[in-house]
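Appendix B, example 12.
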Amino acid sequence: MDTLPVIVAVDGSPDSERALRWAIEAARLRSAPLQVVHVWPYVTTEGRAAAESGIGDPVLDELRKTLNGQADSAGLPGIEYRSLSGLTDTLLPALGAEAQLLVLGSRGRGGFASLLLGSNGMACAAHAAGPVVVVPRPDRGGELGPDGEVVRPAERQITLGVDASSDEPGAIGFAFAEASRRGARLKVVSGYSWPMLAPPAFEYVAAYEGTQQEYENALVKQLTETLAPHRERHPEVAVTVELRDADAAGQLVEASKASDLVVVARHRRRLPVGRRLGSVAHAVLLHAVCPVAVVPEERDRRAEQAGRE
């Protein structure tokens, strides 16, 4: 059993309150302790004192009053509060190494309200060592309830975005486990482009010969083989697979309207200015209606290697 906590970042904003509610449920489903973290965005005397003593943080003090006694009623092993002082886009991603799940809202108190995703959410999704869940605002679409929040789908569904031509054990395993915890069905979405454009290197041209149907059949075969061990481990999860000649990000954003969670692999792009999220993960974070889980590839490989030892 993973003894690491579910960590949620808060700053007193409505977005962080949504993230906190999501994190409480996630911790309960995992029987994991919940750690509530507030980062003072600047190194101030008050922030440093609160970080050292654990008291005097107005954001956490207010949450303590609200959540007092809720740990037992929510089925949580416990709730811990941490106050940190420093750069949020540096400290928050670092917390990923200490958590089995890092949760935050899509926007905080700082920045421009019109932005679809804040810098902290982008930094955590791109750099955290473990899975990151970003909880969006309700104004992205979907049916809203009397409380102004998005109405959850009548049927529980986890949507997984997969590149059929590659193996993504971490994201796939995460999605299956989450579907099992939530008693949800799993919808696997994969997109591809046709016609395929041959790269300039001659030795790769043969890989793109053949008809579209032949190429799609090859992708179906590979995807079936990739999913097989996960389906064996979670026979209780009902799985549907959609492979289409269409943009993967667009399919996932559309599927998010009927999903509790969308799961994607990080797929970093390495640029001269540093690492950035892959285009699919980036687009889904910007536009999905439901929470999005981004699972890093580096941790996936280490977990896979440890399982073989």
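The two ends are 18 Å apart (CA to CA). The chain is about 40% helix and 20% strand.
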